[in-house]
Write a structure and sequence with these properties.
The chain is an alpha+beta fold. Among the domains are: 137 residues, Succinate dehydrogenase/fumarate reductase flavoprotein, catalytic domain (Flavocytochrome C3, Chain A, domain 1, Alpha-Beta Complex), CATH 3.90.700.10; 116 residues, Fumarate reductase/succinate dehydrogenase flavoprotein-like, C-terminal domain (Methane Monooxygenase Hydroxylase, Chain G, domain 1), CATH 1.20.58. The protein is built from 16 helices and 22 strands. A hairpin with a 5-residue loop joins strand 8 and strand 9. Helix 3 crosses helix 4 and helix 13 packs antiparallel against helix 14. It starts with a strand and ends in a 14-residue tail after the last strand. One of its GO terms (molecular function) is flavin adenine dinucleotide binding.
Length: 646
């Protein structure tokens, strides 16, 4: 399953702070007069997709955009709450591009490229300028300066925010820029369309097949290159903080056309989520990491107190375990570390709240001290909409009693492998935002997802896509046999879903079973035996899926059951690869916690000499036998060390 030929990311050489500037100088450009001759397809219109489409159209390219929602404004980027990082150093507390770079490299447990991460830190300040110019209403200090707050994994205040609606406000900025280009005629947008397949002509990505989700019609669209900005695959676990529509289908179809899939087992668990209420629940809700600025996380010291009203538990009977275990960072340790600590407390019998499978899964996030010190008005100004959301869901007022939280699947650091130019291993196919693997390593530092999406869309892809197009002759308008082949394949797959030999169960039935396998065996704790069992269980479940999937209706109309079935089919195959990747990585790093490689107190143990590489998996035609190709990671400016937050 391995390949001796290592991958080359084509990262530039030289001083780290000069690499992106020098690289841009070396890239080719298309003259303004010629840009209208080139066409670009952008799939996904969240932060990365909308900003990339707007930027490319502003430059003069002809752009087509596609999303499965009824509007780009409904992209899952809108759900991001806490903020976006930038090394502006407004608080004069020692922040810099280098410090942000190091925090991200360290936060990712030294499993990301130096060049990519430094570029992201470098571009962070320009992102804020861009957003302010668009009118994004960031919070401001009394003086008028933009406000900052702290986030996990950092000891400086660098997170810009718009209350708990940062993702929504940033997406509206990108959407308005995109809408302007739609009105100008430079972007042709298609809502309620879902990508079914990638079209390759002479080995290059030249188009896509999409299905109109209202009419069921399949259509093909050609361009000179394709950009996928379709988000992450956290919904493979069924229960996650992602919107129910989030899926892996676009990047997985590209993977089956030769695009390498990198680090699929690196899936981030977010510690600050509303705990599961019942076994039939289908969605979990995120509570922003920003709440850990003022909220204190604790659990009862005595298991006998777990059923009591938390307000009746005396201070000396509370265990503020993150502050005890990590005094330097306290409640602001990175997400993977906080999540494992919460799991350890609950496994120790000190969880609170509802019982799921006989275990109480929750700890307290308490704002009593913050309200006492700062006043209820100040705390409500910071977090009021988050408090309202929590109260609507739980019928509990977090200003009067502590929140209950528990970890849940949130973000995926894995994704399509891309080089420094964000091009996949398929010529002409680019991937941006959460759809690629590039910047986060084994664990995403909080408030860096929005940063990556906008850096890719506003600043990187417009430059690197132009370089690619400068070396291409515009695609001719004629009939290509590859188009009909892709159309036929897409139709045959729909037919297979609709005509299972023994139809019995809905897509959700299979998805829930897959999610439980992944959560139990490839979630916060992993071991060799469980991963091997998971691979076997997923293979059996996949066979049953194709035999017993039941879909009413047909493919010539709105059919949401058919939509879900296609996405679950892709999750089945990806889920197996996630477990194969986790099994092959005989170390613990970031969110990947192999119990065989944890210290006695639950800290991860990396094996840099053996696993200091990116795992890029190639589809061989058989999902059971993928091929591993390694990209060695080189650290010229930082020295990988123990990831200590104490």
């Amino acid at each position: 399953m391995t390949d001796e030929q290592p991958l080359d990311s084509f990262s530039p050489k030289g001083p780290l702070e000069q690499r992106w500037t020098q690289h841009k100088y070396n890239l080719r450009v298309v003259s303004p007069a010629n840009r209208k001759r080139y066409r670009v397809i952008v799939v996904g219109t969240g932060l990365a997709g909308a900003s990339a489409a707007a930027s490319l159209a502003e430059m003069g390219y002809q752009v087509k955009t596609f999303c499965y929602q009824d509007s780009p404004r409904r992209a899952h980027s809108i759900a991001a709450q806490g903020g976006i990082n930038a090394a502006k150093n407004y608080h004069n507390d020692g922040d810099s591009v280098w410090r942000l770079f190091y925090d991200m490299i360290k936060g990712g447990d030294f499993r990301a490229r130096e060049s990519n991460v430094f570029r992201l830190a470098e571009l962070s300040t320009s992102i804020i300028d861009q957003a302010v110019a668009q009118g994004v209403p960031f919070a401001r200090e009394y003086s008028g300066y933009l406000a900052n707050r702290s986030f996990g994994g950092a000891q400086v205040s660098r997170t810009f925010y718009a209350r708990g609606q940062t993702g929504q406000q940033l997406l509206l900025g990108a959407y308005q820029a995109m809408s302007r280009q739609v009105a100008e005629g430079h972007i042709e947008h298609f809502s309620r369309c879902e990508m079914q397949d990638l079209i390759k002509i002479d080995g290059k990505a030249k188009g896509i097949v999409v299905r109109d989700l209202l009419t069921g019609e399949l259509s093909s669209h050609l361009a000179d290159c394709v950009v996928l900005c379709t988000g992450g695959y956290g919904n493979a676990f069924y229960l996650s903080t992602n919107a129910k529509g989030c899926n892996t289908s676009a990047i997985w179809r590209a993977h089956k056309h030769g695009a390498l899939f990198a680090n699929p087992c690196f899936t981030q668990i977010h510690p600050t989520c509303i705990p599961q209420h019942g076994e039939l629940q289908s969605k979990l809700t995120l509570m922003s990491e920003s709440l850990r600025n003022d909220g204190r996380i604790w659990a009862p010291k005595n298991p006998a107190d777990c059923g009591r009203d938390p307000r009746d538990i005396l201070e000396q009977d509370r265990d503020y375990f993150l502050e005890r275990m990590y005094p330097a960072f306290g409640n602001l340790v990175p997400r993977d570390i906080a999540s494992r600590a919460v799991k350890h407390i609950c496994d120790d019998g000190r969880g609170v709240g509802h019982e799921i499978n006989g275990q109480k899964l929750g700890v307290y996030l308490d704002f009593a001290d913050a309200i006492k010190e700062q006043g209820a008005d100040v705390i409500n100004e910071k977090y009021g909409n988050l408090f309202d959301m929590y109260q609507r869901i739980t019928s509990e007022d977090p200003t009067q009693q502590p929140m209950r939280i528990y970890p849940a699947v949130h973000y995926t650091m894995g994704g399509l492998w891309v080089d420094y130019n964000l091009m996949t291993s398929v010529d002409g196919l680019f991937a941006g935002g959460e759809a690629n693997f590039s910047d986060h390593g084994a664990n995403r530092l909080g408030a860096s997802a929005l940063m990556q999406g906008l850096a890719d869309g506003y600043f990187i892809l417009p430059t690197t896509v132009s370089d690619y197009l400068a070396r291409q002759t515009p695609l001719e308008d004629k009939d290509y046999p590859e188009v009909q082949q892709a159309m036929n394949y897409s139709q045959s797959r729909l037919d297979s879903l609709l005509n299972a030999p023994e139809p019995k169960h809905t897509p959700d039935h299979f998805h829930r079973r897959l999610g439980k396998i992944l959560w139990d065996h490839c979630g916060m704790a992993r071991n060799e035996f469980a991963l091997k069992q998971a691979i076997e269980d997923i293979q059996q479940l996949r066979e049953q899926f194709w035999r017993e999937i039941k879909i009413s209706g047909n493919d010539k109309q709105l059919n949401q059951t058919l939509e879900r079935a296609g996405r679950v089919a892709d999750f089945m195959e990806l889920g197996e690869l996630m477990c194969i990747d986790a099994l092959s990585r005989e170390e613990s790093c970031g969110c990947h916690a192999r119990v065989e490689h944890l210290t006695s107190n639950g800290e991860v143990q990396r094996r840099d000499n053996d696993f200091g590489f990116v795992s890029a998996w190639q589809f061989t035609g058989d999902v059971v036998q993928p091929k591993l190709i390694k990209e060695p990671l080189h650290f010229d400016f930082v020295s990988p060390g123990i990831r200590n937050y104490q």
